[in-house]
Fold each of these.
Amino acid sequence: MNTNKKLEVLVLEDHYYSNKILSKYVNDLLEKHLPKETGYEVQSFKSGTECILNVSKTLDIAILDYYLTHDDSDASVHLNGHEIMRYILKVSPECKIIMVSALRNPSVVSQIKDDGVFAYIDKHVQTHEEIGKALQEVIESNFTKTN
């Protein structure tokens, strides 16, 4: 990650209200924990197709929901977070992926981890707390003044 540029964060959550809440939480957390001289931009998407069309080669962090049920842009296309993750890592190999899901299939979760996810977070009551911990880890290891 390049510390001379603005931190680019992507949020992909298909449920409208969950998307709004998560995006606000991420913005608030970045405002609180990033060094003042580090700018940032959070882009929020509700469909996999919309997300893929807007992935930047300089993307730093992507927070992805695994199950994407509302892809209004094309009813014939149904992507999941794992497929989006693979695409993002092809376009932006240094991107840190945080996958958030209620997925209970151990073999799929294992494959996601093998494919390079930075953090896999099971959706439960403390989801935002776990996302916050993962974001802070990325910030501390890549966007602090000591780097």
Amino acid sequence: MKYIQYIIFNIFLIIFLIFSVISYLVGAKPLIVTSNSMSPSIEKGDLVVIIKGDQYEIGDIISFQNEGLIATHRVINIDYSDSNESIKFITKGDANKNTDFSLVKINNVIGKVGFIIPFLGFIFLFIQSKYSIYALIIIILILLIEKIRHDKN
């Protein structure tokens, strides 16, 4: 039992350290995908690592601020028509039929998807949920019972 606990702890520690080092070195930002709008390229529950870029091209998957929310969609076209303002991107989720309603200004872009880690976002979503407290209590109780049983033997 202790060996399994040791392995699980070390796996989470290694994942945390990897993300910390990557974030520090390349200015990356991990985000959890909470919808299926980019399916099948990116699924709900995937963790995407966003890297700030100097320029973005058609086909890039970018994360951006849109009316207080963060969205991650593909650039399908670039609008250079407004000479007074910066470049704007026309974006669309791969699973969506239509393009996004509003154009994305370049200063609203957080960055583009550097890489995707499938399902890892579900773990972080679970940790943030109220159910994680219940799970933690159950795990502590199980470990406590195991310790008491082990000490008796």
Amino acid sequence: MMGGNNGSDTSGGQFVRFTVGGLSMGIDILGVREVAVIPGITPVQHAPSFVRGLINLRGQPVTVVDLGVKSVSPGRTLTGHTHVIVLKKAHVGILVDTIGDIVPVPVGGIEPLPSNMDLTNIDVIDGVVKLEHEPMYIVFPVRLLDAMAKTSGGAGE
């Protein structure tokens, strides 16, 4: 599966498109278990700021990560369009503002982030796909889980 550094992975595939704070992002569909409507998030005391809390998904606790805290919209509110993209590798979900379509990306279609982009605080973005109307920033699940482990001492594994 995907997982280069600094956008060096040019593998193609299909990506679930979503938005966080107005940014168009995508995640490899092979790393997604499901997309769920927010049933209610239970806050977790002493968790890192990007951990929004826990949800109960059919009896399984899922840690919900809010990429907006690290990027463009800290403190955002949940709406009727807010969903969680649950990852296959761990009981972790990404809080997203909206879910878009499935975007096919050809081999070589993922490019490194330009050096002048101010997305350095989002260490889970590892590349960009140039779409017709806007860029789609690629989130790699492995980098998200690694970032969680570094920040919280292994939570989410």
Amino acid sequence: MHDDLSAEREHVPITCVNDATFDTGLRAAELDPERPKPVETPWGMMALYSIGGRVHCVQAFCPHLDGPLFEGSLAGNVITCPWHGWRYDVTSGARVDLFRARFGDAAKPLARCEVSESSRGTLVLRPV
């Protein structure tokens, strides 16, 4: 099942330029470990992943050709882009596929946010 997010989304590069935080309004218990949760943030569309009891946050669209990374297949902590198979570790943002580039834009990691919990129990993001 595909969301209309990828079809309607304008290309907006993810930039994390300050120490601002964003409260998602979501609780960790609401996340499905089998499926990432896309979230619109002040820094662009990000995706929340619940892996091994921890919540991780990386950009939702692949830096390759803006494919819907959050709709890819998740194996452990690695997400595979459904368009061209680029693979990323969602805990670090690093590209991990066999033919990964060692330099240039293709070698850049995914934009990430630290995830903490507010006093109300909701997930709060801060760019790293």
